Amino acid sequence: xxxxxxxxxxxxxxxxxxxxxxxxxxxxRVAAGRRPDRSGELARTALAEAGVRCGxxxxxxxxxxxxxxxxxxxxxxxxxxxxxxxxxxxxPRDIVPEVTREQLALELPGLATQILVRGLxxxxxxxxxxxxxxxxxRGPGAALVVNAPGxxxxxxxxxxxxxxxxxxxxxQLDEDPD
Length: 178
Description:
The chain has 178 residues and is α/β, with parallel strands linked by helices. The protein has helices spanning 3-9, 28-31, 40-49, 64-76, 96-102, 109-120, 152-174, and strands spanning 19-26, 52-54, 58-60, 81-85, 106-107, 133-135, 144-148.
């Protein structure tokens, strides 16, 4: 194998430049001010270490219209990665996976499985999360949407998995088809 063939076949491990992202915390108690946000700022910091720049986490109640609007705004605002924290459990108000699916062009169940497996290595409660991972499109400008549980551990697990594949995924999406 020549050096150029080797270079072409290597998976990029770092983002060539900072990528715009967004963090959305979906939690009734945090939105009402009854509980501090424990996962949004952690997500923002961890994503920054992976080369994704995010503004302050957006906090919304566990209501389909509010979450759908926040997700749509993040994507239309240019975010290439949107990490959501919370709303993935089994209660009637946990609507994040269903609303997310409505805005995806393509689900990536392998990444959701990787996040689940990583979480299960630390706690059996990770199995209660129904988070989905997917793309809003299949070309330049498409965003990766990742539903993480609201726990700090769940956020860490999701970011760890996504950070490893994001450079390659964005390279594929932005590739010139010719």
